[in-house]
Amino acid sequence: MRAAVSLRAGSLAALACLALAGCGEESSESSRAGEGDAGTGGALSWALASQPRDIDPLLASTRSEELVTRQIHEPLVESLAGPFGDVRRLPGLALSYDASPDNTIWAFHLRPGVRFQDGTPLNAAAVLANGQRWRTTPEGQALMPDLFAVDAPRPDLARFFLTKPDPDFPERLSDPRTGIVSPQALDRSSGEAATMDRADRSGTGPFELREREAGSVLVARNLSWWGTAHDLGPALDQVRFRSVDGSPERLALLEEGDVQVAERLAPADAEKARENPLLEVLGSGFETLGLERSVRGISSASEVPSLSGIWLTRLASG
Asked: What is the pLDDT of residue 29?
């Protein structure tokens, strides 16, 4: 049995992937630390540096696209912690994984009872369709150049066959671009050379797509998300992503309270934000993030938060 032991934070330029999931059997449940109930945290507005043009995880080519699609589509491999200071770490869609001695065959044991937002079961057949898509499309081949076959020997087990050893293969399946899509949302449900022909109700994630228009994407809490039963949240009911060109414009919206998070602040704007007692600045350089101090759940002082972190974010009352 293999276990991924490190966590990563990420965005496209400086980050390679989402937080890497620990593996092994699911840890025992414990009560949520802190206060509040999942789904009672109100709404958050996030100023993006570019407009998400595609909700398809496999086609995500910018931080903004990865950030949005990651709320809807979950990768197989991840490590999740609940909101409100919860210190537990639970595996995501794959409860565990193991490899052949030469690291050319990887088996992923799936979490039972998970459904896509359209009601389709998340089982090995659904993972097989996604694997076939990765294997037969240019974007998938770029992510997994050594993948030559996928099978589903039983409903809770999916296997990936590689042309050469890859001890880091589970890390590839933690990338937001490998978010699992419902086979019913693909133009070929088999996944062979398939494209995603609808974005609504296409994932298993904590949020589902509600509105998409020029310059704005609204996601709302998925009432049937599997993680809610494990006290994983989501702590927010809605997140609106607004595309705002220009760092000064994003900072102005943050200072005025029109957004609670503004990404990619230029150095001069980040310095202005640091001088504002109502704001906080995380990260540095190209990935600087500004946020209202009322926002909880994004607290890293040295790294830009992982793309999954937004569903663990809570707006403090008062």
From this structure: 34
Quote the CA–CA distance of 123 and 96 in Å, as a whole number: 14
Of 259, 202, 232, nearest in space to 73 by CA: 202
* End-to-end alpha carbon distance in the chain: 47
Give me the sign of the Cα torsion angle 145, 146, 149, 150: negative
Q: Do the Cβ atoms of 185 and 196 come closer than 8 Å?
A: yes
Q: How far apart are CA 113 and CA 208, in angstroms?
A: 18
CB atoms within 10 A of CB 119: 10
Report in angstroms the alpha-carbon separations of 182 from 100, 185, 275, 311. 28, 5, 46, 21
Phi, psi of 127 (to 5 degrees): -65, -40
Residue with tokens 């809610």: 228
Would you state the structure tokens that stand for residue 22, as one six-digit string? 């620990």
61-104 tens-digit pLDDT: 988 898 899 999 999 999 887 776 667 789 999 999 999 999 99
Query: What six digits make up the tokens of 143?
Result: 């992510």
Q: What is the DSSP letter of 115?
A: B
CA distance 154 to 53: 36
**What element of type H or E holds 134?**
helix 124-136
Tokens coding 226: 């599997």
In terms of CATH, what superfamily is 43-315?
A: Periplasmic binding protein-like II (3.40.190.10)
Q: Residue 34 has what pLDDT?
A: 30
How many H helices and E strands in the chain?
Answer: 6, 15
Question: How long, in residues, is the chain?
Answer: 318
What is the distance between the alpha carbons of residues 46 and 260, in angstroms, rounded to a whole number? 6
CA 63 to each of CA 26, 68, 73, 301: distance values in angstroms, whole numbers, following the listed order? 30, 9, 15, 20
Query: If DSSP states are collapsed to H, E and C, what string results for 161-194?
Result: EECCCCCCHHHHCCCHHHCCCCHHHECCCCCCCC
Distance CA 164, CA 187 (A): 30
Task: Give the Cα separation of 301 and 98 in Å (integer).
Answer: 34
